[in-house]
Design a protein that fits this description.
Keywords: DNA damage, SOS response. GO terms for molecular function: nuclease activity. InterPro entries: BFN_sf (IPR036104), Bi_nuclease_dom (IPR003729), UVR_dom (IPR001943), UVR_dom_sf (IPR036876). This is Bifunctional nuclease family protein. With 210 residues, the protein is an alpha+beta fold. The chain is built from seven helices and eight strands; from the N terminus they run βββααβββαβαβααα. Strands 6-5-4-7-1-2-3-8 form an eight-stranded mixed sheet. Helix 1 (40-50) packs parallel to helix 3, helix 2 crosses helix 3 (109-119) and helix 6 (176-188) runs antiparallel to helix 7. It is globular, with a radius of gyration of 18 Å.
């Protein structure tokens, strides 16, 4: 199978989903971009790894995984995005243990990339997936470049700020029927953090009505 090597171009606001971001990957040789919608938590995890000077006070989930893997002499060699189905990208993490045995682990693409950055591992996409989902752009416009930088800055600020009000405030204007539909879409797109927030809002309203 033919794979195309990708580099991380940046993180931008999603124009299609509230509270989500678009991770922009770019083929190493060519102008095509591969945008992947990710949640806020995943965007933070990738942004922290990209910004070397940004150090959280305690290890985040991906940092804990890295520490755990290194203690067991396991390294990540690469990440491969091998399928696109119903708008979801499927990926494998290619690992190698201390004996040189290569192991492939199924992973959400956002998690795989968050770990790839931490291990300085290569990111590849199946050529047929890139041909199907890649966007031909020679370069980002100045406005788009500013949007990417603004998104990264906001993520950094969110990490350093005191947590704000409850997440359910974001969903207070929606009906329960709309919330259930949104929750199903979030689960389908593997945005489990958002799905949990919506579930909590639904449960809260149901309890208030009892």
């Amino acid at each position: 199978m033919d794979f195309v090597k990708l580099n991380i171009r940046g993180i931008s606001y999603s124009q299609t989903q509230v509270g989500a971001y678009a991770l922009i990957l770019e083929e190493e040789f060519g102008g095509r971009k591969l945008p992947i919608i990710i949640g806020n938590f995943e965007a933070q995890a990738i942004a922290i790894a990209l910004e070397k000077d940004l150090m959280p006070p305690r290890p985040l989930t991906h940092d804990l995984f890295v520490n755990f893997a290194k203690k067991l002499n396991v390294i990540i060699r690469s990440v491969t995005i091998y399928k696109l189905e119903d708008g979801i990208f499927y990926s494998n993490i290619v690992c190698e243990d201390k004996d040189g045995e290569v192991i492939e682990l199924d992973s959400r693409t956002s998690d795989a990339i968050a770990l790839a950055v931490r291990f300085n591992a290569a990111i590849y996409v199946l050529k047929s997936v890139m041909d199907r989902a890649g966007v031909q752009l020679e370069m980002l416009t100045e406005e788009e470049e500013e949007t990417v930088q603004k998104a990264l800055k906001e993520i950094e600020e969110e990490l350093s700020e005191t947590p704000q009000g409850p997440a359910e405030d974001l969903y207070s204007k929606f009906s329960i029927k709309e919330l259930k539909s949104m929750m199903n879409k979030a689960v389908k797109s593997e945005d489990y953090e958002r799905a949990a927030q919506i579930r909590d809002e639904i449960e809260k309203r149901q309890q208030d009505n009892d």
